[in-house]
Amino acid sequence: MTSTIGGPGQVLDEAYVARWVEEQVAAEHLDGKRVCVIVPDATRSCPLPMLMTALHTALHGRAAAVTVLIALGTHAPMTEAQLRKHLGGPYPGFTVRNHDQDSLVSVGVIPADRVKRLSDGRMSQEVDVVLNRAVTEHDVCLVVGPVFPHEVVGFSGGNKYFVPGVAGEEIIDFSHWLGALITSASIIGTRGITPVRALIDQAAALIPSRRLALCLVVQSGTGALHAASFGPPEESWAACADVSAETHVQYLDAPVAKVISIVPAKYDDMWTGAKGFYKVEPVVADGGQVIVYAPHITTIAAMHPEIEEIGYHCRDYFLKQWDRFAHHHWGVLAHSTHLRGAGTYDATHGERLRVTVTLATGIPEEVVRRANLDHLDPAAVDLADPGALVVPNAGEVLFRLR
Q1: Is the whole-model pTM more than 0.70?
Q2: pLDDT digits 0-9 by tens, 128-172
Q3: Can you give the pLDDT at residue 296?
Q4: Which of 117, 202, 317, 360 could link 378 by a cystine bridge, Cβ 3.0 to 4.6 Å?
């Protein structure tokens, strides 16, 4: 049974949401149960302090144990100070942990023939579903997190908090490369069950614990909520994805030649700040330019230095030279293609790219150019450029053509 409140254009009262969350959790009769609450890191807009307070009221003294697990996916661990700011609290009786790659267990295997069907024939090898062992050591897994247009899966949220959120590297790489094969521009903001979503749902179904989700539609850049849905992950995610599609997508009548994406401070390297490109690529004209403006970013990928060796290239650059690149982490290859965007490659003409990607960041120019991207001094960027589409707080709202 799924309960949903709010909708497109609405802003929900925080006190009302808190009471509703407490009521939904109480109705699940979790007394005596061990509960793993899986939440996003700070790269997502989400009013976690309010939600965590409501969950603490509903579970403290009732649940046998509560572990709050940060779904890092491919992101860096959060420090104690960052966690206090991110979650609020303290929450007596709750244990807070970062997901890490040393606490993993297999929950089962998706056979190759099933993978082939789920991926529409794009991939056909078995996938070992390796997740943080906390999902098997608790009676109930409760996902709490927002739904936004997403470059790998279509819309984020729901079971995505299991894969890649608290998953092992192999299935993270596999799912991201499947998205890259489809391409970011093709899958981002796609409603319904995309091949990557189908794979993720199949993986989550192997988890032995009961699964619930509190999915949210958050006003980008704030903690305000447009909508929330509680119930099985598949159903609560679908309800919020429908609202997100009407809330987090802006439509333009014609392509633009230049975009300036102003990346907020919550993205602290290009691995996460690249969302400033993903969300605008669909509206850039052929031969156009995206300037990713982020003076605060000083590194490409703190957790994935391999990307500096590989550089940023279109999908076909890798596919047509697969013997050169297959041994690299496929998730890194996927990130590379997502930020470089559409293009072609052949041995005669080399790589031809649809748009120019320019970093106006604190990353040294030689590092940027070595990674196959253009460089611009942030001081030279006119944030009021009348010839550009200037996107403040870039990274969550998707721009598409009508």
Answers
A1: yes
A2: 999 999 999 999 999 999 999 999 999 999 999 999 999 999 999
A3: 98
A4: 360
Please give the Cα distance from 200 to 302 (Å, whole number).
26
What is the rounded CA–CA span in Å between residue 136 and residue 204? 12
Q: What is the DSSP letter of 380?
A: G
Amino acid present at 63: A
Decide: 148 and 167 in contact? Cβ < 8 Å.
Answer: no
pLDDT at 223: 84
Q: 70 and 216: one domain?
A: yes
pLDDT of the residue at 75? 80
52 sits in which H/E element: helix 48-59
Give dist(CA 368, CA 312) in Å, integer. Answer: 10
CATH number at residue 216: 3.40.50.11440
pLDDT tens for 201-231 read 999 999 999 999 999 999 998 889 999 999 9
Residue 43 domain boundaries: 3-247
Rounded to whole angstroms, the Cα distance separating 223 from 237 reads 19
Q: Which residues lie below 8 Å from residue 117, measured CB to CB, with a gap of 6+?
A: none
Q: How confident is the model at residue 42 (pLDDT cuts 50, 70, 90)?
A: confident
Burial of 298 (0-12, 13-18, 19+ CB in 10 A): middle
Structure tokens at 205: 């179904």
pLDDT digits (tens, 9 = 90+) for 343-367: 999 999 999 999 999 999 999 999 9
How far, CA to CA in Å, does 59 sit from each of 19, 26, 64, 87? 13, 8, 9, 16
Report which residue type is found at 115.
V
Looking at the structure, tell me whether residues 18 and 164 fall in a common domain: yes
Buried-exposed string 256-277: b where 16+ CB fall within 10 A, e elsewhere:
bebbbbbbbebbbbbbbbbbbb
Q: What is the CATH number of the domain that holds 324?
A: 3.90.226.30
Counting the structural domains of the chain, the total is 2
In angstroms, the CA 321 to CA 334 distance is 15
Which tokens sit at 36?
């793993």
Q: Are residues 231 and 313 in the same domain?
A: no
